[in-house]
Amino acid sequence: MAEPDLVDVDVVVATRNRPALLAQAMTAIRAQDHPGRVITHVVFDQSLPDPTLASDDPMRPIVVHTNRRSPGLAGARNTGILAGSAPWVAFCDDDDLWLPHKLSSQLAVLARTGADTAVSGIIVEYGDHAAVRVPDPAALGLANLVRNRVMEAHPSTVTVRRTALVDSIGLVDE
Q1: Is the Cβ–Cβ distance between 141 and 119 less than 8 Å?
Q2: Which of 41, 78, 110, 135 could link 152 by a cystine bridge, Cβ 3.0 to 4.6 Å?
Q3: Would the pTM of this model clear 0.90, i.e. be above it?
């Protein structure tokens, strides 16, 4: 396995008519301290794509797509997943902001453990209030996830090995 600091990561950002929020999310993605390539796939769902977002920056390229699958978040995420080819896939909702060390921290854990997925905590801000939500590893087992929605396991915190996602876990259920 490649060193975690050398691997490419595809980041899938589904969006629909929220340019100001999207701009903030994109800034946070570009600011990742991960020294490898971070390829952002912005997928416009049921809205006109903004081709001006595209960038050929060698370390932080941005590719703009139109959702060609089922309308909605799941179809848009699958469009982005299938458009990429990096060994790792991460998701960032257009209204979320990653901390600068999100990818590097997760990739280090994934390299050390050999796991196929990593989920981190989130900070949810409501006005002047911030709630820290960190998932309990026991709540992330398959049996529990099938029965319960684990709010702490937010999609914007997920990084997953492409081969596991495409071959065994499967794409997002549309």
Answers
A1: no
A2: 135
A3: no
